[in-house]
């Protein structure tokens, strides 16, 4: 477009129109954000759109995956041999341990039948890979490569080998997205393993910390205590490791001084997990 | 097409987050400066919403961010158009910093406070900008020649 040919007044008018449009779209954007943050109004829209987007994630990830495989391929053979040796050693060790474990398991079963206890609540799990997709680092979601075709459903629990990661939020045929327990909108019912004290852990938008509030100052909760899921609310199975209490701080917005604040560190590797288990 | 590619680059997990440029913004700035594409704020808004969906932020966060950048560019268009390469890079850097402040506001409203590496992103953008600019210019002149033949 030839700028010099455009009349000056017309240009000003154009600018004014743009300002108006900016205001209009800006207000719309803020409104949408408020709607998205405050309530669950946009969840349906997001769910539908995610059905289209989730497969796209996999398309984007594919070349990345191939690149990693290629670089792995060119890795020195020497290194591979070394790894093989250490792995063999580990395998032998693990097998030895397994023998002991099996003995214990048998003993356990015998005791159980003796006690006529209900069948142990064995958890059914599926192994899933995290798709190498960078979502916004502050949104606390991730994408895994299992979807409805593998029997994954919204609300299912996701763990790694050391603790609880989060729950499935959206599901497409071959992939789904997980909301982490550290998400600022996430809360989870917890129990102190030491004394059974119940509480709720709130996500803080920080991989390293959960907030526990609404506990009276005299509550028996100490740094080092382990917190597990309580199973209340029925979302998460009971007894999964979640976090370790790190410190207690005074609540600065609490004038009565009757309530304490506690911070806990999630046990699962929220930021660097690469393989996860989906619990059915 | 190039905007779609930039959108995809946003979710590719390389390089690490703190040195990953805001690709979509850079691509948008290029088109706004070099041609009449994307002049409509409505288009910019829709692209922003798409990015929000892709990277899982609040609906409207990136839309607002791109919107304000496009508006500022439109405001100073005459002045920016005749700037030299380095000057232009500085302008791009300032736009990106301004955008970080804006996004910080949105993030803090939703209860998340980012760490210090958050502020390195405009730097990454400024570093990537000249290369993107040159590459896009080459591609476009190549395309035009092809069209003539």
Give me some keywords for this one:
heterodimer; A: 280 residues; alpha+beta; Thrombin, subunit H; 3 domains; six-stranded antiparallel beta sheet; six-stranded antiparallel β-barrel; 3 helices; B: 149 residues; mainly alpha; 7 helices; 0% strand; globular
Helix and strand element order of chain A: HHHEEEEEEEEEEEE
Helix content of chain B: over 70%
Q: Low-confidence runs of chain A (pLDDT<50, min 5 residues)? A: 117-121
Biggest sheet architecture of chain B: none
Total DSSP helices of chain B:
7
Separation, N- and C-terminal Cα atoms of chain A:
60 Å
Strand line-up in the sheet with most strands of chain A: 1-12-3-4-5-2
The CATH architecture of the largest domain in chain A comes to: Beta Barrel
What is the residue-averaged pLDDT of chain B? 82
CATH class of the largest domain in chain A: Mainly Beta
CATH topology of the largest domain in chain A: Thrombin, subunit H
Folded structure, characterized:
In chain A, 36% of the residues lie in helices and 25% in strands. Chain A is α+β, with helices and mostly antiparallel strands. Chain A folds into three domains: 8-71, no CATH class; 80-120; 123-280, Thrombin, subunit H, CATH 2.40.10. The longest helix of chain A has 39 residues, at 77-115. Chain B has one domain (2-140). Chain B contains seven helices and no strands. With 149 residues, chain B is mainly alpha-helical. Chain B has helices spanning 2-11, 23-34, 41-55, 61-75, 77-81, 85-109, 121-148. In chain B, helix 2 (23-34) packs parallel to helix 4 and helix 4 (61-75) packs antiparallel against helix 6. Helix content of chain B is 74%, strand content 0%. Classes of the chains: A alpha+beta (280), B mainly alpha (149). The interface between A and B is large, with 41 and 40 residues.
């Amino acid at each position: 477009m030839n700028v010099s040919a455009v009349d000056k007044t017309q240009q000003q008018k154009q600018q004014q129109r743009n300002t108006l449009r900016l205001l209009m779209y800006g207000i719309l954007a803020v409104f949408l954000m408020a709607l998205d943050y405050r309530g669950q109004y946009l969840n349906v829209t997001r769910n539908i759109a995610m059905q289209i987007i989730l497969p796209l994630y996999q398309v984007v990830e594919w070349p990345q995956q191939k690149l990693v495989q290629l670089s792995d391929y060119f890795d020195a053979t020497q290194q591979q041999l070394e790894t093989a040796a250490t792995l063999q050693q580990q395998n032998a060790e693990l097998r030895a341990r397994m023998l002991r474990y099996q003995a214990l398991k048998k003993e356990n079963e015998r005791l159980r039948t003796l006690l006529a206890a209900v069948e142990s609540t064995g958890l059914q799990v599926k192994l899933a890979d995290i798709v190498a997709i960078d979502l916004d680092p502050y949104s606390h979601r991730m994408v895994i490569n299992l979807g409805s075709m593998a029997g994954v459903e919204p609300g299912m629990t996701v763990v790694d080998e050391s603790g609880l990661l989060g729950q499935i939020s959206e599901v497409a045929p071959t992939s789904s997205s997980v909301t982490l327990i550290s998400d600022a909108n996430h809360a989870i019912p917890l129990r102190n393993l030491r004394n059974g004290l119940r509480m709720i852990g709130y996500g803080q938008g920080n991989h390293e910390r959960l907030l526990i509030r609404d506990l009276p100052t005299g509550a028996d909760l100490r740094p080092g205590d382990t917190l597990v899921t309580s199973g209340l609310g029925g979302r998460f199975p009971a007894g999964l490791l979640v976090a370790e209490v790190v410190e207690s701080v005074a609540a600065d917005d609490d004038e009565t001084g009757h309530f304490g604040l506690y911070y806990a560190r999630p046990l699962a590797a929220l930021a660097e997990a690469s393989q996860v288990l989906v619990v059915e | 097409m190039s905007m779609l590619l930039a959108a995809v680059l946003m979710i590719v997990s390389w390089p690490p987050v703190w040195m990953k440029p805001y690709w979509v913004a850079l691509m948008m700035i290029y088109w706004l400066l070099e041609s009449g594409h994307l002049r409509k704020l409505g288009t910019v808004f829709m692209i922003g919403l798409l990015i929000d969906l892709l990277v899982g932020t609040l609906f409207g966060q990136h839309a607002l961010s791109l919107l304000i950048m496009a508006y500022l560019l439109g405001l100073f268009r005459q002045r920016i158009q005749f700037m030299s390469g380095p000057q232009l890079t500085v302008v791009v850097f300032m736009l990106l910093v301004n955008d970080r402040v804006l996004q910080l506001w949105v993030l803090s409203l939703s209860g998340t406070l980012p760490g210090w590496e958050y502020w390195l992103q405009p730097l990454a953008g400024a570093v990537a900008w000249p290369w993107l600019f040159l590459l896009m210019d080459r591609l476009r002149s190549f395309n035009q020649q092809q069209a003539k033949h």
